[in-house]
Design a protein that fits this description.
heterodimer, A: mainly beta, six-stranded mixed β-sheet, three-stranded antiparallel β-sheet, 0% helix, B: mainly beta, seven-stranded mixed β-sheet, four-stranded antiparallel β-sheet
Chain lengths: 111, 116
Amino acid sequence: QSALTQPASVSGSPGQSITISCTGTSSDVGGYNYVSWYQQHPGKAPKLMIYEVSNRPSGVSNRFSGSKSGNTASLTISGLQAEDEADYYCSSYTSGSTRYVFGTGTKVTVL
Amino acid sequence: QVQLQESGPGLVKPSETLSLTCTVSGGSISTYYWSWIRQPPGKGLEWIGLFFPSGSTSYNPSLKSRITISVDTSESQVSLKLTSVTAADTAVYYCARTSQWSFHSWGQGALVTVSS
């Protein structure tokens, strides 16, 4: 089971919006609405930001939003802030043998 | 608010067994799904396996022959055992409450180094 494909890095200035893509196949991202997104600051555990494509857990800023089209899911961060600088990973349920697959990870830099 | 804390040896010798425990507080361990996930230094996340409330398990095929995940409800602990470890198993190991096909709560992680 191959990892989902994410851009290695995305950057933006404070206040801007950025979008991180997560590309899979019809066996994972495209086949199920079970895509989630995680934020990970250096030396810290990942934190759930989005689940089931577009749902935000309680306490997560509404500046974070998720969507999906075909085999590609996206995470958009609006009004970029310095604290958003972190690594971001997508994940999806998969009908493949692995059950869950993660993305390759994207480093977000706030310029 | 469920809280999770991993614990176990930070150093394991090659060919030996890695054993980690995740202690759960603030919620009923028996009503949730529990996953183990690992992250090699400087690399991405890898799902290891899942324990269902029914007692059944699901493991990553790449590790299946070496993994055992179990739950001790009396101690509120989720355990991971990984046998015949090599340097490739060096990673930070996380336990995570799993719900709605996502990993909602994570422990702080436990770094395990495989070295002689």
